[in-house]
Structure to design on (959 residues):
């Protein structure tokens, strides 16, 4: 009997805004506990929420990008439950009239495209964070996160492999970062993911009893948790047991899921319309403006990189993984018009350097003009490609431009007659035998001679100039 | 000259303008009065003369309420000052911020002179549900002053404050104003910022004035009204010059009398006084028309579903975590929640939290909350239809009876709930309502009538009330406090 998992994901991302969802407190990450708070996000008696317009606009942008239908009516509900990290003991969220519904995200899985439908995209506020004293003495609450603006993106149960879940998350993150809607940084808690998973026999269309899996702190953990959970459910069914509807927690150390609460213990959240925020209609032109101003999305950009710049698919894929990198690439193109060469450098030496230093190209010291300048020096023959590899490290380290480094270090290569001519003569004189081998038809012999010239000039000679010069000299012999 | 404490804000302001009194003298006088009579009235929870005097040191030069002592209901936050909703669960609570209305009062030079008693979290119509002590009616200390803003109504009535702020969710300003013989107004929902008003039912609550006469009510509303970007439910409509609208003239105004508000079995003396008032206004040229508010009979039921639903959520935050009362030595989180709330809330608060939790529960939501919302819309339509038909205002009794005896209804919540039967619809519809004294029973208890206006037409209510007041002298009578 073969089973397949049926998976739906609930992704929470923190919207990229300066201030919180319903008050003016900063959304900056970190800060001493409770330093980014005010009476509103602390839920003090008498306070009222005021909706952050930027959060609304970001949410609209994301909803448009995943093809959701935006109803135009904005309403909030209260989700009521008691917990110490929830200062009002209710969360302001959206319920039966979400911002938007019925979208989709296309993912590519082993070369094939698959559409994952998106059920809804809605706004809500975050809760604070509990910190438990070691040994269990006391618990503390940090409300810095309380009231952070969140966007919840709920997929339909269209995901049928843990690998697809991974891909979905990766593509969603890429998209949201492109839109500048969220940083989607799981480490800083700006992206969180819960998964609903059930199983069924392959070929069936019904849905089994699902488990909700929480506490996964990386995309890889999501994948591992789903793999584990799939197998757990299969084993249960095969042993003749039933699947219980429950919430399970991923334990990353033991790499298993453990039951947290069953359906019977589930909360009755007593949702009702938030009376402190009067429902309102979005102005149509606001939605249209966001639609018009939508940046080019990753898929489209990738396609353009291959068609307009003639880049191989692989290069286009790598360069469009981050909007910043793609922007940077196009910026370089303004100063230097050989796309593949820029791509090689960005994907090779530059990205190697950045990865080692944990930097992004945008906040490195290398400017697009700088990189272009360096490549022009190579083209003009002033420096060799090998020299350029050293120079770019220097540029990344110091922010200096290529000409400055070249003249500072006397790096420019020797390609003119005088000095090179002398060295070539010397090398031929010192390597008679090899020179004759060449004249007798051994082409490889020339490479040795070129190497000798390079050695004598400490790499400053232009190899192709040396090559040409040696051929000329030997043919005259 | 009369004692300063017995004057209205309008009278005191003209004395202040002429420099014939100083703000300090007004405060001394009001505190002298409070000290002599509040032991019999118990309208105040806190009163602090030194703090009030300190406020006179930095008064704005041209404030509209410069030097006028204003008493504030205990559910409106004042930064750094005890604000407890008369509840044990907020004992000792000092808010870190002030309500918008408090900021507005202060910027116009008003002196916050004390905090007035109320039913706990504004749950009640008698001021008996205070965790401190009941407040007594200045006209008969064996009777309740009404509620929940009973403290504010009583201190204004007893001349212990020049004016006061209350809050009104289902009649909590108008009913005590009526029972204590003062003027009280619930403004249009959205007219006054609720920021800093500790919420009972967010979609119904409004802060409003309780004053000795109509002019003072217009003056005080003019100061506290207006859009506030901290309250998304406040409405950005300019505030009219309410004082400028006070005209002793109702000629041609159309006043609707809803037949559902004059039912058999209502108190004869109340009915008689209100009908006399109608006759008076008719004599002054108002056109009187019978109108119908057909969904009136559902108002109390709808109100106790919606108001308690919102309250159950609004009061969830009193959980012992951050502020207010926390039970001693909790064993665990659940124990802390249960005992903190069990010990901190009074009986009526618990009753309403339980009721509100119930009506929002899954399986009951549609039958209660959702249906009540639909009926609320019908009630609102009733009012809209009347105003669309050309009525300038609606006139009704404020309360079906005069002040009742202490303890009379305390054990019968339903009879207590019915004392707001004439005021509740106004909150459900969101329209403004004003209560003004219109007579006395033969036992000397005040009777009030209610004027209800169209959305954001408070000035019409002031005009009708001012005309009535100018032609009567009920508001000049004072209780004889033993």
């Amino acid at each position: 009997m073969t089973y397949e998992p049926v998976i739906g994901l609930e992704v929470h991302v923190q919207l990229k805004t300066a201030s919180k969802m319903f008050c003016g407190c900063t959304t900056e990450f970190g800060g001493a506990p409770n330093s980014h708070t005010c009476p509103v996000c602390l839920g003090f008696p008498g306070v009222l929420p005021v909706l952050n317009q930027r959060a609304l606009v970001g949410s609209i942008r994301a909803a448009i990008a995943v093809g959701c239908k935006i109803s135009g009516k904005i309403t909030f509900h209260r989700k009521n439950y008691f917990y110490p990290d929830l200062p009002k003991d209710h969360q302001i969220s959206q319920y039966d009239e979400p911002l938007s519904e019925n979208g989709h995200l296309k993912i590519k899985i082993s070369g094939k495209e698959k559409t994952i439908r998106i059920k809804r995209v809605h706004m809500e506020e975050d809760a604070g964070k509990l910190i438990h004293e070691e040994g269990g003495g006391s618990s503390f609450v940090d409300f810095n996160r309380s009231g952070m603006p969140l966007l919840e993106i709920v997929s339909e149960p269209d995901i049928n492999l843990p690998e697809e879940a991974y891909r979905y998350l990766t593509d969603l993150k890429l998209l949201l970062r492109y839109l500048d809607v969220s940083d989607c940084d799981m480490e800083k808690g700006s992206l969180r993911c819960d998964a609903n998973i059930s199983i069924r026999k392959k070929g069936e269309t019904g849905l089994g009893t699902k488990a909700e899996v929480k506490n996964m702190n990386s995309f890889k953990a999501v994948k591992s948790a789903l793999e584990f959970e799939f197998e757990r459910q299969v084993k249960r069914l095969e042993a003749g047991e039933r699947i219980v509807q429950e919430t399970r927690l991923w334990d990353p150390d033991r790499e298993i899921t453990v039951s947290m609460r069953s359906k019977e213990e589930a909360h009755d959240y007593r949702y009702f319309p938030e009376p402190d925020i009067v429902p309102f209609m979005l102005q149509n032109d606001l939605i249209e403006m966001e639609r018009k101003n939508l940046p080019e999305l990753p898929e489209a950009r990738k396609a353009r990189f291959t068609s307009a710049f003639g880049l191989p698919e692989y290069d286009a894929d790598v360069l469009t993984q981050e909007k910043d990198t793609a922007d940077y690439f196009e910026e370089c193109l303004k100063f230097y018009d050989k796309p593949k060469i820029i791509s090689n450098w960005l994907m090779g030496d530059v990205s190697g350097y950045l990865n080692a230093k944990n930097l992004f190209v945008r906040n490195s010291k290398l400017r697009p003009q700088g990189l272009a300048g360096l490549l022009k020096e190579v083209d003009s023959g002033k420096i060799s490609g090998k020299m350029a590899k050293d120079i770019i490290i220097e540029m990344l380290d110091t922010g200096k431009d290529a000409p400055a480094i070249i003249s500072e270090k006397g790096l420019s290569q020797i390609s003119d007659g005088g000095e090179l001519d002398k060295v070539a003569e010397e090398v031929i004189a010192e390597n008679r035998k090899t020179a004759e081998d060449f004249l007798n038809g051994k082409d490889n012999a020339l490479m040795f001679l070129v190497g000798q010239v390079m050695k004598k000039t400490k790499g400053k000679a232009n190899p192709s100039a040396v090559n040409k010069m040696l051929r000329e000299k030997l043919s005259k012999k | 000259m009369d004692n300063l404490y017995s004057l209205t804000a309008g009278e005191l302001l003209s004395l202040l303008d002429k420099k014939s009194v100083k703000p300090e003298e007004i405060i001394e006088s009001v505190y002298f009065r409070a000290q002599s009579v509040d032991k019999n009235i118990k309208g105040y929870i806190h009163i602090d003369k030194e703090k009030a005097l300190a406020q006179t040191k930095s008064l704005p030069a041209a404030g509209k309420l410069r030097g006028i002592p204003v008493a504030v209901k205990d559910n409106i936050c004042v930064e750094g000052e005890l604000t407890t909703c008369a509840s044990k669960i907020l004992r000792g609570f000092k808010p870190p911020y002030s309500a918008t209305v408090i900021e507005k009062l202060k910027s116009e030079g008003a002196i916050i002179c004390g905090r007035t008693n109320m039913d706990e979290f504004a749950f009640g119509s008698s001021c008996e549900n205070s965790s401190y002590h009941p407040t007594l009616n200045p006209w008969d200390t064996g009777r309740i002053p009404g509620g929940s803003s009973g403290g504010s109504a009583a201190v204004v009535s007893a001349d212990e404050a020049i004016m006061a702020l209350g809050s009104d969710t289902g009649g909590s300003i108008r009913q005590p104003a009526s029972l204590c013989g003062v003027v009280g107004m619930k403004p249009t929902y959205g007219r006054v910022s609720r920021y800093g008003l500790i919420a009972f039912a967010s979609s119904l609550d409004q802060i409003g004035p309780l004053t000795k006469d109509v002019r003072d009510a217009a003056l005080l509303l003019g100061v506290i009204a207006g859009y506030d970007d901290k309250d998304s439910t406040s409405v950005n409509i300019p505030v009219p010059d309410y004082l400028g609208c006070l005209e002793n003239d109702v000629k041609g105004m159309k006043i609707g009398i809803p037949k559902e508000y004059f039912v058999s079995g209502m108190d004869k003396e109340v009915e008689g006084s209100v009908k006399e008032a109608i006759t008076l206004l008719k004599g002054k040229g108002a056109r009187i028309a019978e109108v119908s508010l057909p969904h009136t009979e559902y108002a109390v039921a709808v109100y106790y579903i919606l108001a308690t639903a919102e309250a159950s959520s609004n009061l969830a935050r009193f959980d012992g975590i951050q502020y207010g009362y926390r039970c001693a030595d909790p064993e665990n989180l659940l124990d802390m929640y249960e005992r903190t709330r069990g010990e901190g809330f009074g009986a009526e608060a618990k009753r309403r939290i339980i009721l509100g939790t119930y009506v929002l529960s899954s399986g009951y939501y549609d039958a209660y909350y959702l249906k009540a919302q639909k009926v609320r819309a019908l009630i609102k339509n009733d009012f809209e239809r009347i105003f669309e038909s050309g009525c300038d205002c609606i006139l009704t009794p404020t309360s079906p009876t005069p002040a009742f005896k202490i303890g009379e209804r305390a054990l019968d919540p339903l009879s207590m709930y019915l004392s707001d039967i004439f005021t509740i619809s106004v909150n459900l519809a969101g329209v403004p309502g004003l209560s003004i004294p219109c007579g006395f029973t033969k036992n000397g208890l005040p009777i009030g009538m209610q004027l209800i206006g169209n959305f954001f037409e408070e000035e019409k209510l002031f005009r009708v009330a001012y005309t009535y007041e100018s032609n009567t002298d009920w508001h000049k009578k004072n209780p004889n406090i033993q």
